[in-house]
Write a structure and sequence with these properties.
Elements (H helix, E strand, L loop, with lengths): L8 E6 L9 H12 L6 E6 L7 H5 L3 E8 L7 E5 L15 H12 L5 E8 L11 H25 L7
Parallel strand pairs: 1-2, 1-3, 3-5
Antiparallel strand pairs: 4-5
Helix pairs in contact: 1-4
Length: 165
């Protein structure tokens, strides 16, 4: 875990880079890690699956941007949605969704980020291989722009008010 004084924005990606478009989350995470490499207020983690061990990172973050592929969205569609913690009992498995991770963070650490957003890219292929489909590759610039807008908006929301100092 990083120092919570500096960890303001967590980018948390999920996907299998060996299954075609399912790897778009880790692909975007690698881009974000390079893009924000010198900026201590942004921390990027990519996993094939989101597990319960990530709840602590979430609990110590001011905001979280979850990155994943989507079978439900139109191929190549970049969509964002606000995420709230799941209600009720969280079933502990080897894979959790964004809402379940938020609920686990709240349950175990008594803490939630101020804002949590899920960014998905609609996938068209889960074929074996590391290549993203042409449709998903065409969506990458929009997904990167959405990531940048999220980070900028959270920096602005978390910046101290100069009049309050």
């Amino acid at each position: 875990m990083r120092n919570s004084d500096h960890l303001r924005c967590l980018i948390l990606a999920c996907g299998n880079p060996l299954r075609g478009d399912d790897g778009v989350g880790p692909w975007l995470a690698a881009w974000a890690a390079e893009r924000y490499r010198a900026e201590p207020d942004v921390y990027v983690i990519a996993r094939q699956q989101w597990g319960p061990e990530l709840a602590e990172e979430i609990a110590h973050s001011k905001c979280v941007l979850f990155l994943d592929s989507s079978l439900q969205a139109r191929p190549g569609a970049v969509e964002t949605m606000e995420i709230e913690p799941a209600e009720g009992v969280v079933n502990w498995t080897h894979h959790l969704g964004a809402a379940e991770l938020l609920a686990l963070s709240r349950g175990l650490y008594g803490s939630l980020p101020r804002r949590a957003v899920l960014l998905t890219v609609g996938m068209s292929s889960m074929a074996m291989g590391e290549e993203l489909s042409e449709t998903v590759r065409a969506a990458i610039p929009e997904a990167r722009a959405q990531i940048e807008r999220f980070v900028l908006s959270q920096r602005a929301a978390l910046a101290p008010c100069p009049l309050a100092q």
